[in-house]
Amino acid sequence: MTDNEGTPDALTDGFHLLIDALKLNDLNTIYGVPGIPVTDLGRMAQDAGIRVLSFRHEQNAGNAAAIAGFLTKKPGICLTVSAPGFLNGLTALAHATTNCWPMILISGSSEREVVDLLQGDYEEMDQLAIAKPLCKAAYRILHAEDIGIGVARAIRSAVSGRPGGVYLDIPGALLGQVMDEAEGAKSLVKVIDPAPAQIPAPSAVSRAIEVMKGAKKPLIILGKGAAYAQADEVVREFVETSGMPFLPMSMAKGLLPDNHQQSAAAARSMALKESDVVIMVGARLNWLLSHGKGKQWGDAHSTKFVQIDIEPREMDSNVEIAAPLVGDVESCLSALLTEMGSSWEKPSEDWLGPLSVKKESNLVKMASKLLNNSNPMDYHAALGVLREIIAERPDAMLVNEGANTLDLARSIINMSKPRKRLDVGTWGVMGVGMGSAIAAAVETGNPVLAIEGDSAFGFSGMEVETICRYNLPVCIVIFNNNGIYRGTDVNTSGGSDVATTVFVKDARYDQMMEAFGGAGAYVTSPDELRRAVNEAMDSGRPTLVNAVIDEAAGSESGNIGSLNPQSVVSKK
Question: Which domains does the chain possess?
Fold first, then answer.
């Protein structure tokens, strides 16, 4: 193609248009695994100034992108190859959608005409159809001139309303399509106001205030949606103005410091069971809260719920919601504060006093357990050390997964700043640890402490090489008790195989990190653990601390053993 003077027009292609579309929307980090047909896309994105982090497995790259979305409120980008790579990333995409975190999974794919006729292309799969039920939205781009609008639609879908995962299907031939450079630039779209505020209806605000006024034993529950909103000052003002006790869900810890006088976390059971009005702020009445009913809630029929959520369909999902407030967290809380005014009456000491007594009693009991200097350590002894280290380093990022390791850590380790604690989220899925740790380091630049059960670490442990390759300030502490839940189970069949929950005894996970150039430490006592972790956090060097835990210390499924059905049938 030439202009009127015979000079060739500048051309662009699908590779460059996709990269330019991402950069135009300030999406400057990609997590993924290179391969057919996106190998050159990763190389060219890196050349264009996008940070491209290559993982050892797509699921871990996707988990990193999901956490990036939670931390930044922008879609985390995961790039995978076709078919098997796409399927590996799909678990993370569904995880992001379930947790309401914005993420875009971009996968190479086979051409439509081959897939539709089932002609047996390399890694042939109808990826769009498979992705649709598992994410918030799914799109396929077939023409280079549509790349700009396709990326824009994916971004807006990921972050607007209730955030979630979006799939973007990129057939290999699209990347090589050529078009006029000027026309290509015109086709790009800068997304304007992708997540506009959603203001609650005035009548809904008034209804919520009336329900709150009628409470004798009110309780606020802060969910990770409140943390995602980044409306930290408004959340604090609402809690403190109301005077109500509050419970943070695990990833909402730190919105107000865990040692805040209104925190009822140390008296959680009493707070839930005796409360008569519960204000849900960015939290859902799912399994993590016993669906809002059952023994945990006392007389569920007498509990009234005020629920703040941006998704109308979340209301009445398990129990009746007396006062639904549909809107974003900041707008809803601001509206409540305006109507509460300066004359708001705080809860009486008849409610706050007994809660405070229970809280202090439980804290005293916990303190004695944390001072245990056993060798090998139990969970409380090890977590008591890590609790002190996090208290001394409030800007550090904490990643946490496991069974006992997770359940106990979230109640023992206090957080003082928002969005510093990252864990398994709504699904309770294992294997998110290394992806979360990498994203936390990349997106914040802060040191990361990843507290892992030995079983949970096994899902993503090979990413220690990724951590070393990019020299990230990540310290991994593996609670090694030789198995899932505990290392003492036996095979009752009399066969030579070990029990299904038992691992290799005294595994040296620390040597994995050393193999890739990081630092390793093997510790058996609280004092050794303290020294090793402090040294790692001070140095910023990739480190893995293999912390030996008494193999009999764990319990089945941690605190949720009731979800593991047990047979009552005896066969001889």
Answer: 11-187 (3.40.50.970), 202-356 (3.40.50.1220), 371-557 (3.40.50.970)
